[in-house]
Amino acid sequence: MVQIPAKSLTLDEFLKLPETEPASEYIDGRIIQKPMPQGEHSVIQTELASAINLAVKPKQIARAFCELRCTFGGRSIVPDISVFLWGRIPRKENGGVANIFSIAPDWTIEILSPDQNQTKVTKNILHCLKYGTQMGWLIDPEEQSVFVYPPNQSATFYDEPGTRLPVPEFAKDFNLTVAGLFGWLLE
After folding, report:
1. Can you name the residues that pair with 101 across neighbouring β-strands?
2. Over the stretch 77-125, which tens digit does the pLDDT of each residue have?
3. What percent of the chain has pLDDT over 70?
4. Kindly report the CA angle at 168 between 61 and 146, in degrees rounded to 5?
5. How big is the CA angle at 108 (ends 28 and 101), to the nearest 5 degrees?
6. What is the DSSP letter of 132?
7. What is the pLDDT of residue 37?
8. Are 32 and 2 in contact (CB under 8 A)?
9. CA-to-CA distance for 185 and 180, rounded, in angstroms?
10. Where does the pLDDT of residue 7 fall: very low under 50, low under 70, confident under 90, or very high at 90 and above?
11. 28 DSSP β-pair partners
C-alpha cells in the first residue's frame, strides 16, 4: 500500500484524477494506492468471482465484479471483489451496466497481498458494512484463512479445510469450503 503525498483533495477532486495502476483509493481525505496483485491474490480473485457469478448470475440474483470502484460515504474504494444484487446494479438508460457505482456492494471481498495493511483493509470492510453491505470477507492466502464480517455481529474466523464458508442469504446456493477456496492455488 502506497500513500501518495499530495495536497489535500476533496473526494470530487480525487474522482476527476486519472485512474492509476494499481488502483488508488480515497480514504479519510488521503489517496492510498493499492498494492499490485501477485499470483496467489490473482488466482483467488479470478476463480472466486467466476464461481460466485456461476451461482448467482444465471438467475439474475446478483453479479460479482473485480476491482470495481465504489464511491459512497465519503470514500472511494476498490474492493478486490464487489457483489451487487441484480436490482441494485447501476444501469445506463439502455440497460447496460453503468460505469459509476455510488453505492456500497452487498458483499465485499478483500484478498490480502503480501505487505498489505490488514487494518486498512478491515476498515474498508467495516465502512461497507456501515453503509448496508450484507457481508464482508477478508481472505489471507498466506495463513489460508478467512475472516467473515456479518453486519452488527462479531467477525468469525475460518481456517479448517472442511468448513463451509458463510455467505449472504442471497448467495445461499453458493457453496465453498476453506479447502475449496485455497485449493485453487494448487491448480
Report:
1. 70
2. 999 999 999 999 999 999 999 999 999 999 999 999 988 889 999 999 9
3. 96
4. 130
5. 70
6. T
7. 87
8. yes
9. 9
10. low
11. none
